[in-house]
Amino acid sequence: MVDKSIAMYRADVEAAQMQLREASDRERWIIDSTKCQSRKETLKKIYARGFDLSEEIARAKVLEAEARQLASFDDEDDDEEGSRGGSDEGPEGEVSPVEKVETDRS
Length: 106
What we know:
0% strand
């Protein structure tokens, strides 16, 4: 008898948790949809005023992608320098431009 009531309560709890998850998911979708709709309306208003930001947005996206790519290259270079000892010399013992300027000033 006790086992049946415990099983029934567990089933009720699982059903309630499932409903809560579904409600939470719906809420998240509604919020995301509302944000997107708001952004869309804002961009339409800006465009209606004669501002065309599409080129600037595209340019900004390209610059962001390039910055990410450069950052990943910098990370790779840092990793390689750490494994090689991190010398300031360029390829095959050449002095780096920064080091050359510093020695010229001395």
